[in-house]
User: Fold this.
Amino acid sequence: MRFNRKRHKLLKSLAEKISKIKESKIAIPGNEAGFTYTEIESLLGISRMERYKMLSELFEAKEIMPFRLDNGSSGCFINSKEGITALSNKKYLIRNEKIILDWIKNFVQIVIPVLSLIITLAVIKNDNSKKSKEIQTIENKVESLQENIKSMELKIKTLPNRKKNDSLLTKSKG
Assistant:
């Protein structure tokens, strides 16, 4: 992923370098049209191994072309057709964005179900605690009603004894 941005930066630098030189129509050595490998490493802040990995795709797509100088140094310059096309189409920046968007999609596809499960469990737990509170309240009311019923039953049992001893009831009979 990080190589995609560096590939774009290299193509941009190579295109800028060659555009300055293209105005003159004389043959120029490769190091004036491009960069040596050590210049590429310092320009992009990468190691030799990272440079191999990064440049391999550019060489394979023929977006850059190699050169070798008489003094033994070598490097590359931009291919005026494929390289400029890749740069203008932002091929490597778009590829980098696609990688990021795919990662975000995968992350969201994992996180959203997990979060919904957590929320559901929290609601169920909260709902269960509400139900148990409601059940406790109902049980308390039932107990209170049962106590009221018992006290009324006691009152009813004592009422017939009052009727027997009630002086008004006995006088009216006789």
